[in-house]
Design goal:
Length: 250
């Protein structure tokens, strides 16, 4: 799963599609003038669209690579980690490599500024990233049923200036909030740490709330610390959650 769509993710989907179609001009139009691109099988980087053009042309004269994005994980600092299924064949069609790799993109002004090939995080970290992405999507959709499947029975939510809230309290308050407000949350993971069957994430969040009868949006921003516990069947569920969201000054 790729998580919710966004203009940045659609940009990367278009870049992968253009690469696989060998449509260099379309792909290069999605890059900045100073783009840095790795020479994946030879080391180092090429810089600028024309060097990328030359590198790809050389690469395609030697091998036939196909890369399909499997999942997208937005990170801090304007970067997105992409889990990719990569199949590389020789020009006779024989498979040379068939594996999953990580591509980390840095975007600037709605265009690709840098791409790096990297190792994928552990299976546990990827699952936690997926839970985080699914949680934010469900919050924005007002999907209480989905949210309840992502939390432990003894979950605790800690909100500034309020008493701790458990599963039942969350289930009572969440629908009321969505009935009264249009809510949109954006959350960028800053850190993931996994220690055995417990993990925590630190994210930077931004929240927009608008009264459903109409009115001005209230913007909140801050950080969130979330603790996850691994269940006996292998799933990771949210167990503790605390945030520092406050109103952002106009």
């Amino acid at each position: 799963m790729s998580g919710p769509s966004s203009p940045e993710i659609e940009l990367l989907r278009a870049a992968y599609a253009a690469f696989n179609a060998r449509d260099i001009d379309v792909a290069l139009a999605l890059m900045t003038a100073d783009v840095a691109w790795p020479r994946a099988f030879k080391g180092g980087f090429v810089r600028g669209p024309e060097e990328v053009r030359a590198y790809w042309s050389e690469q395609w004269s030697e091998i036939d690579p196909r890369v399909e994005p499997v999942a997208f994980y937005p990170e801090g600092g304007g970067s997105i980690l992409v889990e990719v299924h990569q199949v590389v064949r020789d020009l006779a069609g024989n498979v040379l490599a068939d594996d999953r790799v990580g591509h980390r993109f840095t975007l600037e002004g709605g265009l690709i500024q840098r791409m790096e090939v990297c190792e994928l995080p552990s299976a546990d970290e990827l699952q936690i990233r997926e839970v985080h992405s699914t949680w934010i999507g469900a919050v924005n959709a007002g999907d209480l049923g989905r949210l309840l499947t992502l939390m432990t029975d003894d979950v605790v939510f800690l909100n500034p200036g309020e008493q701790p809230v458990g599963r039942d309290g969350f289930a009572a308050k969440f629908p009321t909030a969505h009935q009264q407000l249009r809510i949109f949350c954006a959350s960028l993971l800053q850190e993931i740490v996994v220690v055995g069957e417990v993990a925590y994430t630190w994210s930077r969040d931004a929240l927009s709330v608008v009264p459903r009868p109409g009115g001005e949006a209230t913007l909140l921003g801050g950080h969130r610390l979330t603790v996850y516990r691994k269940q006996p069947e292998g799933r990771w569920l949210l167990a503790r959650d605390a945030h520092t969201l406050t109103v952002v000054a106009e």
